[in-house]
Amino acid sequence: MTRFARFRPSADDAVALFAGVAAVVGSFAAVGFAPSFVASPIERWLARRMPGAVVSLAIQFLGSLGQQLNLVAAALVAVCVVAAVARVAGTLGDRLANRAVGPVVAGGVVFGVATLLTGSVPSSGGAAVGTALTLGLAGLSGSLPARGATSPDRRRVLASLGTAAGLGVVATVLTDDTSQPTATIPDDASPAVREALEAAADQSLAVDGLEPLVSDEFFSVDINAVDPEVDATQWSLSVTGSVEEEITVDYEQLRSMDARTEFHTLRCVGESLNGTKMDNALWTGVPVRTLLDRAGPDSDCDCVRVHAADDYYQVFPIDALNGAMLAYRMNGRPLPQGHGYPARALVPGHWGEINVKWITEIEVIDRDAEGYWEERGWHGTGPVETVAKIHAQNTLPDGRVQVGGHAYAGTRGVSAVEVSTDGGDSWSEARLSDPLVESVDWAGEPGETPHAPDVWRQWAFEYEPPAGEHEVVARAIEADGTVQPETEREAFPHGPSGWVSRTVE
Protein backbone atom coordinates (compact mmCIF):
# COMPACT_ATOMS: atom_id res chain seq x y z
CA MET A 1 0.00 0.00 0.00
CA THR A 2 1.38 3.42 -0.98
CA ARG A 3 1.49 6.38 1.39
CA PHE A 4 -1.48 8.06 -0.35
CA ALA A 5 -3.70 4.99 -0.62
CA ARG A 6 -4.73 5.28 3.01
CA PHE A 7 -6.25 8.72 2.24
CA ARG A 8 -8.50 7.42 -0.50
CA PRO A 9 -11.99 8.81 0.20
CA SER A 10 -14.66 6.31 1.12
CA ALA A 11 -18.32 6.21 0.18
CA ASP A 12 -19.10 7.76 3.57
CA ASP A 13 -16.79 10.67 2.75
CA ALA A 14 -18.49 11.21 -0.62
CA VAL A 15 -21.96 11.13 0.94
CA ALA A 16 -20.87 13.64 3.59
CA LEU A 17 -19.42 15.92 0.91
CA PHE A 18 -22.65 15.90 -1.10
CA ALA A 19 -24.55 16.57 2.13
CA GLY A 20 -22.41 19.70 2.50
CA VAL A 21 -23.23 20.76 -1.05
CA ALA A 22 -26.92 20.11 -0.43
CA ALA A 23 -26.82 22.25 2.71
CA VAL A 24 -25.41 25.25 0.84
CA VAL A 25 -27.84 24.73 -2.04
CA GLY A 26 -30.74 24.33 0.40
CA SER A 27 -29.89 27.61 2.06
CA PHE A 28 -29.70 29.30 -1.34
CA ALA A 29 -33.07 27.81 -2.36
CA ALA A 30 -34.63 29.25 0.79
CA VAL A 31 -33.30 32.82 0.63
CA GLY A 32 -31.35 33.29 -2.64
CA PHE A 33 -28.37 35.64 -2.78
CA ALA A 34 -29.35 37.36 0.45
CA PRO A 35 -27.20 38.39 3.43
CA SER A 36 -28.74 35.41 5.24
CA PHE A 37 -27.44 32.94 2.64
CA VAL A 38 -25.17 30.65 4.65
CA ALA A 39 -22.07 31.55 2.63
CA SER A 40 -22.60 35.32 2.92
CA PRO A 41 -21.31 35.87 6.49
CA ILE A 42 -18.25 33.76 5.66
CA GLU A 43 -17.63 35.78 2.50
CA ARG A 44 -17.87 39.03 4.46
CA TRP A 45 -15.46 37.71 7.08
CA LEU A 46 -12.95 36.68 4.42
CA ALA A 47 -13.25 40.02 2.60
CA ARG A 48 -12.70 42.09 5.75
CA ARG A 49 -9.59 40.16 6.75
CA MET A 50 -7.96 39.95 3.36
CA PRO A 51 -4.80 42.10 3.15
CA GLY A 52 -5.30 45.41 1.33
CA ALA A 53 -2.62 44.55 -1.22
CA VAL A 54 -4.44 41.35 -2.14
CA VAL A 55 -7.76 43.19 -2.46
CA SER A 56 -6.18 45.83 -4.71
CA LEU A 57 -4.61 43.22 -6.99
CA ALA A 58 -7.90 41.34 -7.21
CA ILE A 59 -9.77 44.53 -8.16
CA GLN A 60 -7.25 45.47 -10.84
CA PHE A 61 -6.76 42.08 -12.46
CA LEU A 62 -9.97 40.19 -11.69
CA GLY A 63 -12.56 42.94 -11.26
CA SER A 64 -15.95 41.59 -10.13
CA LEU A 65 -14.67 38.05 -10.70
CA GLY A 66 -12.48 38.37 -7.62
CA GLN A 67 -15.52 39.01 -5.46
CA GLN A 68 -17.35 36.09 -7.02
CA LEU A 69 -14.37 33.82 -6.37
CA ASN A 70 -14.39 34.95 -2.75
CA LEU A 71 -18.06 33.93 -2.50
CA VAL A 72 -17.21 30.56 -4.06
CA ALA A 73 -14.43 30.13 -1.49
CA ALA A 74 -16.89 30.96 1.29
CA ALA A 75 -19.37 28.41 -0.08
CA LEU A 76 -16.61 25.78 -0.16
CA VAL A 77 -15.80 26.52 3.49
CA ALA A 78 -19.47 26.02 4.35
CA VAL A 79 -19.54 22.77 2.36
CA CYS A 80 -16.50 21.44 4.20
CA VAL A 81 -17.86 22.36 7.63
CA VAL A 82 -21.21 20.68 6.96
CA ALA A 83 -19.44 17.67 5.42
CA ALA A 84 -17.42 17.24 8.62
CA VAL A 85 -20.59 17.43 10.71
CA ALA A 86 -22.35 14.94 8.41
CA ARG A 87 -19.41 12.54 8.55
CA VAL A 88 -19.32 12.52 12.34
CA ALA A 89 -23.10 12.17 12.57
CA GLY A 90 -23.05 9.30 10.07
CA THR A 91 -20.39 7.48 12.05
CA LEU A 92 -22.46 7.93 15.21
CA GLY A 93 -25.49 6.46 13.47
CA ASP A 94 -23.45 3.45 12.28
CA ARG A 95 -22.21 2.76 15.80
CA LEU A 96 -25.72 2.95 17.19
CA ALA A 97 -27.01 0.88 14.27
CA ASN A 98 -29.75 3.41 13.68
CA ARG A 99 -30.12 5.01 10.23
CA ALA A 100 -32.18 7.91 11.61
CA VAL A 101 -29.45 9.16 13.96
CA GLY A 102 -27.13 10.51 11.25
CA PRO A 103 -29.70 12.68 9.40
CA VAL A 104 -31.34 13.93 12.61
CA VAL A 105 -28.11 14.80 14.41
CA ALA A 106 -26.47 16.34 11.34
CA GLY A 107 -29.58 18.33 10.47
CA GLY A 108 -29.92 19.61 14.03
CA VAL A 109 -26.29 20.65 14.35
CA VAL A 110 -26.31 22.35 10.93
CA PHE A 111 -29.51 24.21 11.82
CA GLY A 112 -28.00 25.45 15.08
CA VAL A 113 -24.67 26.53 13.61
CA ALA A 114 -26.29 28.16 10.57
CA THR A 115 -28.74 30.06 12.78
CA LEU A 116 -25.89 31.43 14.87
CA LEU A 117 -24.06 32.38 11.68
CA THR A 118 -26.92 33.96 9.71
CA GLY A 119 -29.67 34.69 12.23
CA SER A 120 -32.14 33.40 9.65
CA VAL A 121 -34.48 30.48 10.32
CA PRO A 122 -35.42 30.00 6.63
CA SER A 123 -31.77 29.91 5.56
CA SER A 124 -30.79 27.59 8.40
CA GLY A 125 -33.83 25.42 7.77
CA GLY A 126 -32.93 25.08 4.10
CA ALA A 127 -29.38 24.06 5.02
CA ALA A 128 -30.61 21.57 7.63
CA VAL A 129 -33.17 20.03 5.29
CA GLY A 130 -30.57 19.68 2.54
CA THR A 131 -28.19 17.93 4.91
CA ALA A 132 -30.73 15.61 6.50
CA LEU A 133 -32.45 14.75 3.21
CA THR A 134 -29.17 13.82 1.55
CA LEU A 135 -28.04 11.60 4.42
CA GLY A 136 -31.49 10.07 4.81
CA LEU A 137 -31.93 9.17 1.13
CA ALA A 138 -28.37 7.88 0.93
CA GLY A 139 -28.96 5.61 3.93
CA LEU A 140 -32.27 4.38 2.56
CA SER A 141 -30.76 3.68 -0.85
CA GLY A 142 -27.91 1.67 0.66
CA SER A 143 -30.34 -0.51 2.63
CA LEU A 144 -32.49 -1.51 -0.33
CA PRO A 145 -32.15 -5.04 -1.75
CA ALA A 146 -29.27 -5.30 -4.22
CA ARG A 147 -30.16 -5.10 -7.92
CA GLY A 148 -27.57 -6.05 -10.47
CA ALA A 149 -23.92 -5.34 -9.85
CA THR A 150 -24.40 -1.94 -8.18
CA SER A 151 -23.01 -2.08 -4.63
CA PRO A 152 -24.80 -0.48 -1.65
CA ASP A 153 -22.00 2.06 -1.29
CA ARG A 154 -22.31 3.07 -4.93
CA ARG A 155 -26.08 3.46 -4.55
CA ARG A 156 -25.56 5.66 -1.48
CA VAL A 157 -23.13 7.93 -3.33
CA LEU A 158 -25.40 8.19 -6.37
CA ALA A 159 -28.40 8.95 -4.16
CA SER A 160 -26.56 11.73 -2.33
CA LEU A 161 -25.32 13.18 -5.61
CA GLY A 162 -28.82 13.07 -7.07
CA THR A 163 -30.28 14.76 -4.00
CA ALA A 164 -27.78 17.61 -4.17
CA ALA A 165 -28.37 18.02 -7.91
CA GLY A 166 -32.13 17.97 -7.47
CA LEU A 167 -31.95 20.66 -4.81
CA GLY A 168 -29.80 22.67 -7.22
CA VAL A 169 -32.59 22.55 -9.83
CA VAL A 170 -35.16 23.62 -7.22
CA ALA A 171 -32.92 26.49 -6.13
CA THR A 172 -32.51 27.65 -9.73
CA VAL A 173 -36.27 27.72 -10.26
CA LEU A 174 -37.06 29.42 -6.96
CA THR A 175 -34.42 32.14 -7.30
CA ASP A 176 -34.79 32.90 -11.02
CA ASP A 177 -34.58 36.68 -11.53
CA THR A 178 -37.16 37.98 -14.00
CA SER A 179 -36.81 41.68 -13.19
CA GLN A 180 -36.99 44.13 -16.09
CA PRO A 181 -34.02 46.25 -17.17
CA THR A 182 -33.93 49.52 -15.27
CA ALA A 183 -33.58 51.57 -18.49
CA THR A 184 -37.13 50.89 -19.69
CA ILE A 185 -39.69 53.61 -19.00
CA PRO A 186 -42.22 52.47 -16.35
CA ASP A 187 -45.92 52.87 -17.08
CA ASP A 188 -46.42 55.08 -14.02
CA ALA A 189 -43.49 57.39 -14.78
CA SER A 190 -44.12 61.06 -14.08
CA PRO A 191 -44.29 63.39 -17.11
CA ALA A 192 -40.88 64.85 -16.25
CA VAL A 193 -39.26 61.42 -16.00
CA ARG A 194 -40.90 60.19 -19.20
CA GLU A 195 -39.88 63.31 -21.11
CA ALA A 196 -36.26 63.04 -19.91
CA LEU A 197 -35.92 59.33 -20.73
CA GLU A 198 -37.55 59.72 -24.13
CA ALA A 199 -35.26 62.66 -24.92
CA ALA A 200 -32.24 60.56 -23.93
CA ALA A 201 -33.38 57.77 -26.26
CA ASP A 202 -33.87 60.23 -29.13
CA GLN A 203 -30.47 61.85 -28.57
CA SER A 204 -28.56 58.57 -28.44
CA LEU A 205 -26.36 58.06 -31.50
CA ALA A 206 -27.27 55.21 -33.82
CA VAL A 207 -23.99 53.29 -33.51
CA ASP A 208 -24.03 49.48 -33.39
CA GLY A 209 -22.45 48.16 -30.22
CA LEU A 210 -22.65 51.48 -28.37
CA GLU A 211 -24.71 51.64 -25.19
CA PRO A 212 -27.37 54.41 -25.24
CA LEU A 213 -27.20 57.56 -23.15
CA VAL A 214 -29.23 55.86 -20.42
CA SER A 215 -27.44 52.62 -19.67
CA ASP A 216 -29.16 49.34 -20.47
CA GLU A 217 -27.37 47.73 -17.53
CA PHE A 218 -25.79 49.77 -14.75
CA PHE A 219 -22.58 48.45 -13.21
CA SER A 220 -22.56 47.56 -9.52
CA VAL A 221 -19.53 47.34 -7.23
CA ASP A 222 -19.87 46.60 -3.51
CA ILE A 223 -17.65 45.43 -0.68
CA ASN A 224 -19.80 42.29 -0.38
CA ALA A 225 -20.71 39.71 -3.00
CA VAL A 226 -24.29 39.69 -1.68
CA ASP A 227 -26.27 42.93 -1.39
CA PRO A 228 -27.87 43.87 1.94
CA GLU A 229 -31.64 43.72 2.22
CA VAL A 230 -32.98 46.90 3.82
CA ASP A 231 -36.64 47.23 4.80
CA ALA A 232 -37.74 50.74 3.83
CA THR A 233 -40.34 50.76 6.62
CA GLN A 234 -37.55 50.25 9.18
CA TRP A 235 -34.92 52.41 7.46
CA SER A 236 -33.83 55.84 8.60
CA LEU A 237 -31.05 58.30 7.82
CA SER A 238 -29.36 60.35 10.54
CA VAL A 239 -27.11 63.39 10.39
CA THR A 240 -24.86 63.15 13.45
CA GLY A 241 -21.52 64.23 14.87
CA SER A 242 -20.35 67.85 14.96
CA VAL A 243 -23.71 69.45 14.27
CA GLU A 244 -25.90 71.89 16.12
CA GLU A 245 -28.77 69.38 16.16
CA GLU A 246 -28.72 65.72 15.20
CA ILE A 247 -31.65 64.84 12.96
CA THR A 248 -33.19 61.63 11.65
CA VAL A 249 -35.62 61.09 8.79
CA ASP A 250 -37.40 57.93 7.71
CA TYR A 251 -38.23 56.80 4.18
CA GLU A 252 -41.66 58.45 4.03
CA GLN A 253 -40.30 61.71 5.37
CA LEU A 254 -37.51 61.69 2.79
CA ARG A 255 -39.96 61.11 -0.07
CA SER A 256 -42.23 63.90 1.19
CA MET A 257 -39.48 66.51 0.78
CA ASP A 258 -39.02 68.67 -2.30
CA ALA A 259 -37.25 66.46 -4.82
CA ARG A 260 -35.42 66.90 -8.09
CA THR A 261 -34.74 64.57 -11.02
CA GLU A 262 -31.35 64.63 -12.73
CA PHE A 263 -29.05 62.58 -14.90
CA HIS A 264 -25.89 61.45 -13.13
CA THR A 265 -23.01 59.39 -14.52
CA LEU A 266 -20.95 57.15 -12.23
CA ARG A 267 -17.48 55.75 -12.90
CA CYS A 268 -15.69 53.13 -10.79
CA VAL A 269 -12.24 54.08 -9.48
CA GLY A 270 -11.07 50.49 -9.88
CA GLU A 271 -12.03 49.97 -13.52
CA SER A 272 -9.58 49.59 -16.39
CA LEU A 273 -8.91 52.62 -18.60
CA ASN A 274 -11.27 51.41 -21.34
CA GLY A 275 -13.44 49.36 -19.01
CA THR A 276 -17.22 49.25 -18.83
CA LYS A 277 -17.77 50.31 -15.23
CA MET A 278 -19.08 53.73 -16.20
CA ASP A 279 -22.82 54.23 -16.66
CA ASN A 280 -25.55 56.84 -16.66
CA ALA A 281 -29.10 56.96 -15.29
CA LEU A 282 -31.90 59.37 -14.36
CA TRP A 283 -32.17 59.74 -10.60
CA THR A 284 -34.80 61.30 -8.34
CA GLY A 285 -34.01 62.43 -4.82
CA VAL A 286 -33.58 65.14 -2.22
CA PRO A 287 -30.62 67.55 -2.03
CA VAL A 288 -28.24 66.51 0.76
CA ARG A 289 -27.90 70.15 1.78
CA THR A 290 -31.56 70.09 2.84
CA LEU A 291 -30.64 67.82 5.75
CA LEU A 292 -27.18 69.24 6.39
CA ASP A 293 -28.47 72.78 6.67
CA ARG A 294 -31.18 71.63 9.06
CA ALA A 295 -28.57 69.91 11.26
CA GLY A 296 -26.10 72.83 11.16
CA PRO A 297 -22.59 71.37 10.61
CA ASP A 298 -19.93 72.69 13.02
CA SER A 299 -16.70 70.88 12.13
CA ASP A 300 -13.06 71.91 12.44
CA CYS A 301 -12.01 69.93 9.35
CA ASP A 302 -15.24 70.24 7.33
CA CYS A 303 -15.27 66.48 6.73
CA VAL A 304 -17.99 63.87 6.71
CA ARG A 305 -17.99 60.13 7.22
CA VAL A 306 -20.89 58.52 5.37
CA HIS A 307 -22.07 55.11 6.61
CA ALA A 308 -24.00 52.34 4.86
CA ALA A 309 -26.13 49.41 5.97
CA ASP A 310 -23.48 46.92 4.80
CA ASP A 311 -20.85 48.46 7.14
CA TYR A 312 -19.22 50.40 4.29
CA TYR A 313 -18.07 53.93 5.09
CA GLN A 314 -16.35 56.72 3.22
CA VAL A 315 -14.73 59.98 4.32
CA PHE A 316 -14.53 63.08 2.14
CA PRO A 317 -14.80 66.91 2.36
CA ILE A 318 -18.24 68.19 3.24
CA ASP A 319 -18.05 70.61 0.30
CA ALA A 320 -18.25 67.61 -2.04
CA LEU A 321 -21.88 67.30 -0.96
CA ASN A 322 -22.77 70.64 -2.59
CA GLY A 323 -25.11 69.55 -5.34
CA ALA A 324 -25.31 65.99 -4.00
CA MET A 325 -28.62 64.21 -3.63
CA LEU A 326 -30.12 61.37 -1.64
CA ALA A 327 -31.59 59.36 -4.49
CA TYR A 328 -34.52 57.02 -3.95
CA ARG A 329 -35.66 56.49 -7.57
CA MET A 330 -33.73 55.38 -10.64
CA ASN A 331 -35.13 55.82 -14.15
CA GLY A 332 -38.59 56.39 -12.72
CA ARG A 333 -38.61 53.29 -10.51
CA PRO A 334 -37.84 52.77 -6.83
CA LEU A 335 -34.10 52.39 -6.39
CA PRO A 336 -33.14 48.73 -7.10
CA GLN A 337 -31.68 46.73 -4.24
CA GLY A 338 -28.32 46.45 -5.98
CA HIS A 339 -28.09 50.22 -6.32
CA GLY A 340 -28.79 51.13 -2.72
CA TYR A 341 -32.50 50.75 -1.95
CA PRO A 342 -34.06 52.52 -0.20
CA ALA A 343 -31.66 55.49 -0.64
CA ARG A 344 -28.12 56.25 -1.76
CA ALA A 345 -25.84 59.25 -2.08
CA LEU A 346 -25.02 60.76 -5.46
CA VAL A 347 -22.05 63.13 -5.34
CA PRO A 348 -21.50 65.01 -8.62
CA GLY A 349 -18.18 64.65 -10.38
CA HIS A 350 -16.55 62.20 -7.99
CA TRP A 351 -15.50 58.58 -8.30
CA GLY A 352 -18.19 56.01 -7.65
CA GLU A 353 -16.77 54.91 -4.30
CA ILE A 354 -18.09 57.98 -2.44
CA ASN A 355 -21.60 57.59 -3.87
CA VAL A 356 -22.52 55.45 -0.87
CA LYS A 357 -25.36 52.96 -1.32
CA TRP A 358 -27.79 51.84 1.41
CA ILE A 359 -26.91 55.05 3.21
CA THR A 360 -27.82 55.20 6.91
CA GLU A 361 -25.79 58.04 8.43
CA ILE A 362 -23.96 61.24 7.52
CA GLU A 363 -21.52 61.88 10.34
CA VAL A 364 -19.87 65.30 10.45
CA ILE A 365 -16.42 64.71 11.96
CA ASP A 366 -13.87 67.02 13.62
CA ARG A 367 -10.71 65.49 12.21
CA ASP A 368 -9.84 63.91 8.91
CA ALA A 369 -9.88 60.13 8.70
CA GLU A 370 -9.60 57.35 6.14
CA GLY A 371 -12.51 55.64 4.47
CA TYR A 372 -12.97 51.95 3.78
CA TRP A 373 -10.95 51.89 0.55
CA GLU A 374 -8.35 54.42 1.74
CA GLU A 375 -7.52 52.05 4.58
CA ARG A 376 -6.77 49.51 1.86
CA GLY A 377 -4.48 51.76 -0.15
CA TRP A 378 -6.90 53.49 -2.55
CA HIS A 379 -7.32 57.27 -2.82
CA GLY A 380 -10.39 57.74 -4.97
CA THR A 381 -12.27 60.42 -3.06
CA GLY A 382 -11.24 63.21 -5.44
CA PRO A 383 -12.85 64.39 -8.68
CA VAL A 384 -13.19 61.77 -11.42
CA GLU A 385 -10.63 61.75 -14.26
CA THR A 386 -11.66 62.80 -17.77
CA VAL A 387 -11.89 59.97 -20.30
CA ALA A 388 -13.03 59.17 -23.84
CA LYS A 389 -13.64 55.45 -24.21
CA ILE A 390 -13.68 53.41 -27.44
CA HIS A 391 -16.37 50.74 -27.17
CA ALA A 392 -17.72 50.38 -30.71
CA GLN A 393 -16.06 49.50 -34.01
CA ASN A 394 -18.06 48.90 -37.20
CA THR A 395 -17.39 48.54 -40.91
CA LEU A 396 -19.98 50.58 -42.82
CA PRO A 397 -21.53 49.47 -46.16
CA ASP A 398 -19.43 52.02 -48.04
CA GLY A 399 -16.21 50.53 -46.64
CA ARG A 400 -15.54 53.23 -44.07
CA VAL A 401 -14.73 52.35 -40.48
CA GLN A 402 -16.86 53.72 -37.66
CA VAL A 403 -15.63 53.97 -34.07
CA GLY A 404 -17.53 55.30 -31.09
CA GLY A 405 -17.77 55.46 -27.35
CA HIS A 406 -18.59 57.64 -24.36
CA ALA A 407 -16.77 60.68 -22.99
CA TYR A 408 -17.01 61.90 -19.42
CA ALA A 409 -15.35 64.67 -17.43
CA GLY A 410 -17.44 64.85 -14.27
CA THR A 411 -18.86 68.31 -13.58
CA ARG A 412 -16.24 69.88 -15.87
CA GLY A 413 -18.27 68.76 -18.87
CA VAL A 414 -17.19 67.55 -22.33
CA SER A 415 -17.18 70.01 -25.26
CA ALA A 416 -15.50 67.80 -27.88
CA VAL A 417 -13.87 64.46 -28.61
CA GLU A 418 -10.92 64.22 -30.96
CA VAL A 419 -9.92 61.04 -32.78
CA SER A 420 -6.62 60.09 -34.37
CA THR A 421 -6.35 57.24 -36.87
CA ASP A 422 -2.56 57.38 -37.09
CA GLY A 423 -1.59 56.73 -33.50
CA GLY A 424 -1.81 60.36 -32.34
CA ASP A 425 0.06 62.21 -35.09
CA SER A 426 -3.04 64.04 -36.36
CA TRP A 427 -6.50 64.64 -34.95
CA SER A 428 -10.06 65.11 -36.20
CA GLU A 429 -13.18 66.07 -34.29
CA ALA A 430 -15.83 63.40 -33.73
CA ARG A 431 -19.61 63.79 -33.69
CA LEU A 432 -21.05 64.27 -30.22
CA SER A 433 -24.50 63.48 -28.91
CA ASP A 434 -26.42 66.54 -27.78
CA PRO A 435 -25.99 67.29 -24.08
CA LEU A 436 -28.63 65.62 -21.93
CA VAL A 437 -28.54 68.67 -19.68
CA GLU A 438 -27.31 72.11 -20.71
CA SER A 439 -27.07 73.38 -17.15
CA VAL A 440 -28.41 72.82 -13.66
CA ASP A 441 -29.75 76.16 -12.50
CA TRP A 442 -31.47 76.05 -9.14
CA ALA A 443 -33.07 79.25 -7.90
CA GLY A 444 -31.48 79.08 -4.47
CA GLU A 445 -34.31 77.42 -2.59
CA PRO A 446 -33.22 75.84 0.73
CA GLY A 447 -31.04 72.82 0.13
CA GLU A 448 -30.71 73.39 -3.61
CA THR A 449 -27.07 74.07 -4.49
CA PRO A 450 -26.16 75.10 -8.06
CA HIS A 451 -23.77 72.72 -9.80
CA ALA A 452 -22.70 71.73 -13.28
CA PRO A 453 -24.24 68.71 -15.01
CA ASP A 454 -22.51 65.43 -14.23
CA VAL A 455 -23.36 63.54 -17.42
CA TRP A 456 -21.47 61.68 -20.13
CA ARG A 457 -21.81 62.17 -23.90
CA GLN A 458 -21.59 59.73 -26.78
CA TRP A 459 -19.21 60.25 -29.69
CA ALA A 460 -18.80 58.66 -33.12
CA PHE A 461 -16.28 59.05 -35.93
CA GLU A 462 -16.23 57.63 -39.47
CA TYR A 463 -13.14 57.52 -41.70
CA GLU A 464 -11.55 55.91 -44.74
CA PRO A 465 -9.24 53.26 -43.32
CA PRO A 466 -5.61 53.21 -44.44
CA ALA A 467 -4.13 50.01 -45.81
CA GLY A 468 -3.27 47.51 -43.12
CA GLU A 469 -3.26 47.73 -39.35
CA HIS A 470 -3.50 51.15 -37.67
CA GLU A 471 -3.98 52.65 -34.24
CA VAL A 472 -7.10 54.66 -33.34
CA VAL A 473 -6.77 57.02 -30.36
CA ALA A 474 -9.48 59.09 -28.65
CA ARG A 475 -9.23 62.01 -26.25
CA ALA A 476 -11.84 64.26 -24.65
CA ILE A 477 -11.81 68.04 -24.47
CA GLU A 478 -13.34 69.58 -21.36
CA ALA A 479 -15.79 72.48 -21.52
CA ASP A 480 -13.05 75.03 -20.81
CA GLY A 481 -10.79 73.63 -23.55
CA THR A 482 -8.58 71.48 -21.31
CA VAL A 483 -7.34 68.41 -23.19
CA GLN A 484 -7.57 65.05 -21.47
CA PRO A 485 -4.08 64.10 -20.18
CA GLU A 486 -2.19 61.65 -22.37
CA THR A 487 -0.12 59.87 -19.72
CA GLU A 488 -1.58 56.47 -18.95
CA ARG A 489 -2.08 55.56 -15.30
CA GLU A 490 -3.31 52.34 -13.75
CA ALA A 491 -6.42 52.29 -11.59
CA PHE A 492 -4.55 51.86 -8.31
CA PRO A 493 -4.53 54.01 -6.25
CA HIS A 494 -6.11 57.19 -7.74
CA GLY A 495 -8.19 55.81 -10.63
CA PRO A 496 -7.26 55.19 -14.29
CA SER A 497 -6.26 57.99 -16.62
CA GLY A 498 -4.80 58.46 -20.12
CA TRP A 499 -5.76 58.30 -23.79
CA VAL A 500 -7.62 55.19 -24.94
CA SER A 501 -6.40 53.47 -28.09
CA ARG A 502 -7.50 50.50 -30.19
CA THR A 503 -5.75 48.61 -32.96
CA VAL A 504 -7.89 48.36 -36.11
CA GLU A 505 -7.01 45.86 -38.80
Automatic annotation (TrEMBL):
<keyword id="KW-0812">Transmembrane</keyword>
<feature type="region of interest" description="Disordered">
    <location>
        <begin position="482"/>
        <end position="505"/>
    </location>
</feature>
<feature type="transmembrane region" description="Helical">
    <location>
        <begin position="101"/>
        <end position="121"/>
    </location>
</feature>
<dbReference type="GO" id="GO:0008482">
    <property type="term" value="F:sulfite oxidase activity"/>
</dbReference>
<dbReference type="GO" id="GO:0006790">
    <property type="term" value="P:sulfur compound metabolic process"/>
</dbReference>
<dbReference type="GO" id="GO:0020037">
    <property type="term" value="F:heme binding"/>
</dbReference>
<dbReference type="GO" id="GO:0043546">
    <property type="term" value="F:molybdopterin cofactor binding"/>
</dbReference>
<dbReference type="InterPro" id="IPR000572">
    <property type="entry name" value="OxRdtase_Mopterin-bd_dom"/>
</dbReference>
<dbReference type="InterPro" id="IPR014756">
    <property type="entry name" value="Ig_E-set"/>
</dbReference>
<dbReference type="InterPro" id="IPR036374">
    <property type="entry name" value="OxRdtase_Mopterin-bd_sf"/>
</dbReference>
<dbReference type="Pfam" id="PF00174">
    <property type="entry name" value="Oxidored_molyb"/>
</dbReference>
<dbReference type="Pfam" id="PF03404">
    <property type="entry name" value="Mo-co_dimer"/>
</dbReference>
<feature type="domain" description="Oxidoreductase molybdopterin-binding">
    <location>
        <begin position="228"/>
        <end position="373"/>
    </location>
</feature>
<dbReference type="InterPro" id="IPR005066">
    <property type="entry name" value="MoCF_OxRdtse_dimer"/>
</dbReference>
<feature type="domain" description="Moybdenum cofactor oxidoreductase dimerisation">
    <location>
        <begin position="395"/>
        <end position="487"/>
    </location>
</feature>
<keyword id="KW-0472">Membrane</keyword>
<keyword id="KW-1133">Transmembrane helix</keyword>
<feature type="transmembrane region" description="Helical">
    <location>
        <begin position="69"/>
        <end position="89"/>
    </location>
</feature>
<feature type="transmembrane region" description="Helical">
    <location>
        <begin position="127"/>
        <end position="145"/>
    </location>
</feature>
<feature type="transmembrane region" description="Helical">
    <location>
        <begin position="157"/>
        <end position="175"/>
    </location>
</feature>
<feature type="transmembrane region" description="Helical">
    <location>
        <begin position="14"/>
        <end position="34"/>
    </location>
</feature>
<protein>
    <submittedName>
        <fullName>Oxidoreductase molybdopterin binding</fullName>
    </submittedName>
</protein>
<dbReference type="GO" id="GO:0030151">
    <property type="term" value="F:molybdenum ion binding"/>
</dbReference>
